[in-house]
Amino acid sequence: MPKDSKATTIPKQSGKAGKKAAAQAVVPAPAPFLHTPESLPAPALAGRDFLSNLDTSAAELRVVMDTAHSMRRGEWRGVKPLSGLSMALVFEKASLRTRTTFDVGMYQLGGHAITLSNAEIGLGTRERVSDVARNLERWVDGVMGRVYLQQTLHELADHASIPIINGLSDMLHPSQLLADYQTIEQEFGTDLTGKRVVYIGDGNNLANSHIHMAILTGTDVTIVTPVGYEPNGAVLMDAVKRGATVTLTNDLGAIEGADVLYTDVWISMGQEAEADIRRRAFQGYQVTPQMLDTLAPNGIFLHCLPAHYGEETVPEATEHPKSRVFDQAENRLHAQKALMYHLLGGAKPRW
User: Fold this and answer.
1) Engineered SS bond to 142: which of 93, 163, 172, 273, CB 3.0-4.6 Å?
2) Is 173 a catalytic residue?
3) What percent of the chain has pLDDT over 90?
4) Could you read off the pLDDT of 181-236 as tens digits, one per residue?
């Protein structure tokens, strides 16, 4: 698939400044065609779970990413392939981007989403996870879970016959990585072999998922993190066995010349008790405009948000010319719509 219009490389801004920037931007060419119900690609992952990026092959990932790019270009405008289908959005953790984009995405594809908070469900406390799964499968066509434990998602998947999507867990954040790599492809094209992606900060669920994407896409992923905050050892070993290029270091010099610099919060939800210890451990790992100036000439900066300004980054970095942070946030909608289509597109409405 060809690289997106040059207009997509211009950082979006909000409010009046954004309108002025848009007026100065190159107007993208019209979409070459609009899909009709008859021209839609066959769902590549029909009926399957998406708990990890490795639940897809490289070829299947390519199909999903191509669909995401096509949706961003507006080629699916007005097509409702999930008409009559419903998805439950289960939240143990608070959310802005995940909740909004999955909900809006289902609506735009013709389906319906229902949001269920942990206060309403009480996964594993008010009710067994297996019982929740057996109930939901009788009513809806898919479940997205933003949960504390990866095991919760596996338990849902083990007891439900409908697709389960990982919207975030302690171990992985695969739906975020779809949006991240869509943003990277908008800059560098679809062949990312050898592109240097440097992740700086906590070796958390995002770091683990970046390692999985190195396996699938051929990127050269470097994790820069303090001693004691490394990514999951099993994830690292699996990547090495599969031949992925993954480097683990605490040397900040590894950032120089990177094509992509990525960071995340130092203190994730549920880690508030460790806040002071973590702030001390991550001193020096803050992404600044000066750091961005050391990237490759066409290098970009990504952050999955929310940003804790004054900790892992500063406002001047997310507003920097090399920042694609808000394009990345937009792509949560397109990438997750593509994922939902390929998981649910083969299902028939129940009524």
Assistant:
1) 163
2) yes
3) 84
4) 999 999 999 999 999 999 999 999 999 999 999 999 999 999 999 999 999 999 99
Please say whether the beta carbons of 246 and 226 come within 8 A: no
278 classed as catalytic: no
169 known member of a binding site: no
For 198-208, what is each residue's pLDDT tens digit?
A: 999 999 999 99
Cβ–Cβ under 8 Å, residues 97 and 332: yes
- Domain boundaries in the chain? 37-172+332-344, 176-269+277-329
Residue 269: its pLDDT value, please? 73
Asked if 212 is an active-site residue, the reply is no
* Residue 174 to residue 188: CA distance in whole angstroms: 21
Active-site pick, 35, 72, 173, 320: 173
Q: Give the tens place of pLDDT for each residue, 324-336.
A: 999 999 999 999 9
Please report the DSSP string for 166-189 in residue order: EEE-SS--HHHHHHHHHHHHHHH-
What is the number of helices (H) and of strands (E) in the chain?
A: 13, 9
276 annotated as ligand-binding: no
Of residues 35, 69, 99, 146, which has the active-site annotation?
Answer: 146
Residue 116 has pLDDT above 60, yes or no: yes
Query: Tens of pLDDT along 63-88?
Result: 999 999 999 999 999 999 999 999 99
- Has 159 been labeled as part of a binding site? no
Q: 176-269+277-329 falls under which CATH superfamily?
A: Aspartate/ornithine carbamoyltransferase (3.40.50.1370)
Q: Binding site annotation covers 248?
A: no
**CATH fourth-level superfamily of 37-172+332-344:** Aspartate/ornithine carbamoyltransferase (3.40.50.1370)
Is 54 annotated for ligand binding? no
> Which one of 73, 210, 324, 332 is the catalytic residue?
332
The answer to whether residue 264 is catalytic is: yes
304 labelled catalytic: yes
Q: Are 98 and 175 in contact (CB under 8 A)?
A: yes
CB 51 within 8 A of CB 154: yes
